[in-house]
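Posting this for the archive.
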Amino acid sequence: MDLTTLIVLAVAVFIVAAIVLLRVFRKPTMEDLRLHYGERLLFDDDNCTVEAMLQSGVDTIEQVFVRVTNRRIFISQRGMGRSSKHQLKYVIRYEEMPSVKKQHGEGAPFVTFQTEPQRFSVNESGMLRIEPLPGHELDVPEWLQIKSDNIDPYRQIFQL
């Protein structure tokens, strides 16, 4: 083999390795999600703030994008830099769903938990408070609050 062939081969191997690594280590985004059968989008809420009570204390996430469907609530944060994608932080299931093919367990880049609409409330400061069902995993917050300038759709959907 001559030098040109070796260089072309090395570049091709490098490109393939980079593509594989990017796919393996890519963090899931809101834009990657697909709705399940029978699930429909109810509304999107941009520029919210989320507070979550973790074991280490209250964690506040700003510049949050919330998507509400008839079965789940997705909470994501706007990507840093020039990225227009939203990195998933929480997926909250509040309606029974058929078996989920891919469960995101410990070490997943976002937290998934189950709750029910009876565990939703709006507090005195106008924040939607969500509490998970008892017996949840360690990475699930004790409660989560969504602060939004537009709380009315939440009130209507969850009858608060």
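The chain has one domain: 30-158. The domain at 30-158 is CATH 2.30.29 (PH-domain like).
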